[in-house]
Amino acid sequence: MSVLLLISLDSIAGRFIVERLKSPFATLLLEDDPKAEFTFSPDINCADSPIKFTNTSTGIDLTFELDFGDNSPKSTERDPSHVFASAVGSGTKTFSVKLTVKSNQDPGKTNCPARLLPVANTI
């Protein structure tokens, strides 16, 4: 026979509270706040060449939205590729790429850091 316990912390009293769950079908899910993280490759980025974004976010049951910072449509794919066509010209243009992750279990939990991505222009 299994016994399910709910353990919570009473932060005001500074003690743990242990409760026995009545339903044998209850589940206990501990969820951290979502944390948005991503990498990209290649390391040397050129306009008109695809850049692969790899989502390394942590959390449970997440949705994703990647804003490439170049006025193109946002992506909801987990690991999208993107071409920065607006960087064509001379010099280097920097884009602020922002990944937003939301918890489907608690929509109020959101994390959305931005990273600067320099892209060398092509002529």
TrEMBL record:
Record's protein name: PKD domain-containing protein
Upper taxonomic lineage: Bacteria, Pseudomonadati, Bacteroidota, Cytophagia, Cytophagales
